[in-house]
Amino acid sequence: MADEQIRQGLLQAGWQANDVNEAMMSVPVFGYPQTQPKPKVMMPKSLAIIFITISVAVAGYFAGAYYASKLQNFPLWPFEAPAEPVPSFTPRPRPLINSGQLDISSWQTYHNEEYGFEVKYPSDWGFSKQESFNEPAFVISRDESRLAILPKAGMDYGPPFEDPVVSEITVAGRKAELTRWINIGENGELKLYHFIEIPKAWGNIHRLDLLAVNENDLKILDQILSTFKFIE
User: Fold this and answer.
1) Can you give the pLDDT at residue 53?
2) Which CATH entry fits the domain spanning 108-230: 3.40.1000, 3.30.1300, 3.40.50, 1.25.40?
3) What percent of the chain has pLDDT above 90?
4) Most confident of 18-22, 92-96, 132-136
5) Cα dist from 196 to 169, 181, 224, whole Å
6) Which residues of the chain form CATH 3.40.1000?
7) Which of these, 21, 57, 65, 135, could form a disulfide with 154 (CB 3.0-4.6 Å)?
């Protein structure tokens, strides 16, 4: 039944208009009682401005403190303790065995009358006389590094595949051709020396064979070679 029909029926029944209106206001709509909406509570404009100002200031402080602590290591960021610097350890470089000339006063001397040469070598390096292809070989060695003195060659094992560097130098006062391969092992080298002016009692096929598998051994072997000399 519509509201107007209810109203007319009540007026015909003798109700006063004011009573009818008051009764109609309390009648439920769709099964739910009608209620007046609550008035909205509005924050005063001055309080809203103060709240916004404080919020912006706090946000700006934390943002600035965070980036300052990251960029300049300032202790402004309250939620992150400044990281303590981690002490760095720089290992001392391993000293090279030969930073210049070695003290050779305690070195042993090998003297060979037959082929007319002499050479010195450290006591912690070994010396051996060998034969290779029925030819003599005088070898000063430690582990894989060595200086082989081959008056009539022998000990052929094949050179590296890389192209060598060839130059002319002087060894023990005689001109010699040096064939050199670098980067053998750990900064080592392979050097083959052939004398242009052939020493007495040496064959046309001869050489000094220097193989160093690391940088330290190369320096020692170069020092050993510097003590090599011919004797009359």
Assistant:
1) 77
2) 3.40.1000
3) 44
4) 132-136
5) 10, 20, 21
6) 108-230
7) 135
User: Is the model's pTM score more than 0.70?
Assistant: no
